[in-house]
Amino acid sequence: MSTGVIAGLFPGQGSHAGALRQEVSRTVPALLAECLELVGEDPFARAGESTRFAQPAIFCASIAGWRRRPRSLRPGALAGHSLGELGALVAAGALSERDGLRLAVARGRLMAEACHGRHDGMLAVLGAGVEWAAALARRHALSLANDNAPGQLVLAGPVERLREAAAQARAERVRAITLDVAGAFHSPAMAAAVAPFRAELEQVALSPPSVPVISGASARPFRDVRAELAAAITAPVRWRETMLALAALGARVFVDFGPGQVLAKLVGRNLPDARVLDPFAAAPEDARLADKAQPRPAARPEPSVVA
Q1: What is the value of pTM for the model shown?
Q2: Start-to-end Cα distance in the chain
Q3: Which of 11, 51, 224, 247 is the most buried (most CB within 10 A)?
Q4: Angle, CA of 238, 275 and 175, to the nearest 5°
Q5: What angle do CA 304, 150, 108 make, to 5 degrees?
Q6: Quick check: 302 pLDDT over 60?
Q7: What 3-state DSSP class applies to 275?
């Protein structure tokens, strides 16, 4: 049986990295030590407070997951959701771990600064189509920030407008969940972070990726990494289309290297015939065998939403 391409996934916010500090310390101690120095304190202890802490914590936890994989597991394509693009580029050899961490710390800090003084947030709209969600966003002057999967879209903007949009959604029998984030990520509200993040990107070295890395903003392989990573701060995450792009490259089996397995839970929503491999549960000698991957169980009633 043909196994197809294995695709590796790296998550953004919505992953819960705080509980994985011990694993990070054990797997990538030097990276953790540098993270503590760059952030100025332990980001894992405060990951739930601000994107300033969440982003470096999630990055470190994802790199630890990547490092823990069996050596026989070699994805043929990679993608990252929002912040996760940095982890995917590190895994592809386009960025060093040290530079990826530096960018994750800067990105989290700059986006937190862009949130300062604003009363913005994000709202998941579940069970509706893209056109319906886009119309809801237009009606309430919000941004359609994430297209995660069929029936899972995320709006971003001022909290008061999000409340009004949620009320309308519920009145029309569409489920709406306020996300636990302190900003309107992937919307024009983050514009102040773009130029300084681009300046940070100019300071790091880039190499050609060893395998295709799909941009979550364009749903195509990265072409101009610096420009695309900077623009992605305000651009919507096109994750549904990114998954289709990975499938077009031959991906049939997916591995989520991040904490919480939030992207693994979205695989079946986007690609019903795809399989998910848990590399940490598989014996090293079996990890290369995509045919051993099992379909994900039925989704839990409370969905995982990545922002």
Answers
A1: 0.91
A2: 36
A3: 11
A4: 50
A5: 45
A6: no
A7: strand
- Encoding tokens for residue 44? 């894992």
Distance, in Å, from the CA atom of 126 to the CA atom of 41, rounded to the nearest integer, reads 36
Q: Which pair of tokens denotes residue 62?
A: 């994802």
Query: Cα–Cα distance between 238 and 242 in angstroms, integer?
Result: 6
Say which residue the tokens 């991906």 belong to. 251
**Packing angle between helix 29-39 and helix 97-115, nearest 10 degrees?**
30
Q: Among residues of the chain, what percentage have pLDDT more than 70?
A: 89
Residue in this structure with the two tokens 């030097």, named with its chain if needed:
30
Q: Which helix (H) or strand (E) holds 45?
A: none
Q: Could you give the CA distance from residue 173 to residue 60 in angstroms, rounded to a whole number?
A: 39
Cite the active site residues.
82, 186
Report the distance separating Cα 207 and Cα 272, nearest Å.
Answer: 34
CA distances from 179 to 69, 176, 214, 306 (A): 31, 10, 26, 9
Question: What would the pLDDT profile of 100-150 be if each residue is shown by its tens digit?
Answer: 999 999 999 999 999 999 999 999 999 999 999 999 999 999 999 999 999
